Amino acid sequence: MRVSQLFNKTLKEDPAEAEIISHSLLIRSGMIRKLAPGVFSYLPLGWRVLNKISNIIREEMIRAGFQELMMPIIQPKELWEQSGRWFVYGKELIRFKDRHGREYCLSPTHEEVITTLVKNEIKSYKDLPLNLYQIQNKYRDEVRPRFGLIRSREFLMKDGYSFNRNEESLNQTYEEMYDAYSRIFTRCGLNFRAVEADSGAIGGASSHEFMVLADTGEAALTYCQSCDYSANMEMATHEKRNYENGIERIIEKVKTPDKKSINDVSQFIGISSDLMLKSLVYKASYEGNEKLICIVVRGNREVNEIKLKNAVNAIDISLADNEEVLNATKTSIGFIGPIGLDDIDIYVDEEVMDVKNGATGALEEDYHYIGVNPKRDFPSKCIIGDFHNVDEIDLCPKCSGQLNFKRGTEVGQVFKLGKKYSEKLDCKFLDEKGENQHVTMGCYGIGVGRTMAASVEQNNDDKGIIWPKAIAPYHVIIIPVNVKNKEIVEIAEDLYKKLLKEDIEVILDDTDERAGVKFANADLIGYPIKIVIGSKTLENKTVDFKIRANGEELLVPLEESIEKIKSILL
Is the pTM of this model over 0.70? Predict the structure, then answer.
């Protein structure tokens, strides 16, 4: 390929809407172009990267015993009603009606379709296990598309599904896919971690996310520096802490005028923030209705909303506003507490139950209770559970080691679905005894565009992208510094043709741009090897090699350049 023929325009300035480095660099380097919020076109260089990632995925999926197919993007409402997800999936599901008034959605995922397809094809245990996958576009109406390809409305995804006879067989497939994903992201040149994760709207018994580590990652994760424990913050736990037990005091209501925040109240009554019992009111959304719930955590903790949402089995939860709180409790935010709160379900974080002589809102303006002992004073109807976020004060739940905290971008996730979909969609097989059994399923997804963006998040500098060799759009760019010099052009053309014959992915910058512009564009796009042909080449038959990954510069004899390129690309 020649740059003069390449459909690629680079930009000097960061796009105004870009919030993270991958969004900016993918647009500036001419990899993608925005059509609408969350909707992008992939230009030739970007499409080459996506295809390389897709091919790595295909090779490892075949190695793991999966077969590729293609399923419809348009899915009928009836399937989603059968699975119970027509409302559960929420507003992200893009719904529409055809000319006959029949309702459909654009596929955000394919559990319903694949289960329906397979149930009509398999009959016996001899047909199992069956492993299938596809790579195609998915659609989700994100409330706020952002971060370029990280959170978009249309995106390229690999989704795979396994159909197994039982849990034992599923566990084996799950482990094989876990290993396959590890190989995929390793081959893509990414620094990643697999972490315990929430199953979300997909559902199932357990799940792991594969997170590419980057300071600008959209999600937080924690891992132990002494053992293999790792989890995203939605699922993270910690070693239970031992709190000193004091002598219980008598509960007492005290006036706390205009003191609403944890810090203000704790300073006013003279106790530490971890003895403050923070009560928050959330609005839980269900299919067709909503209700308010109260959650109580220690004052030095933050509510883990995913854990709480799962506990209340809601489609979504959000903090209630002051008017909603007033209507339900007759008290404004800042003075809410569980004691005497009769008409709202109360969820209490397990750490709260260890508090001795704490303080909480008294359900009365400008008043708090002190000397609160939850085991004695809280209503018996309280539901106890783990509802707080892990933070730096906590230790590993497996080995008591120090927990580290990082940010990352999710690029893949594996789920144990069990019989969630096979039971609802009646996908069965005959076992060895001739009895009908529901199949046991697994689900395995990779965001192909997300993987490309995450790679850029992890691999860049102030000049541009630094592509890992395996997924770079081209491996080598040849830059003749002066296209008006016939001898320089002839040497560049000769090397270009020889590299093509060697099946090395090479691009020749044959434009008449200034040398500095060519160098800047090559660095911005991120070609792994830059070969400069100029005056040194004419003087002593050498070429300048510049390695993008580490900035190394080499002076290589022209006649040895092909072998040198091969050695670098190994």
Answer: yes
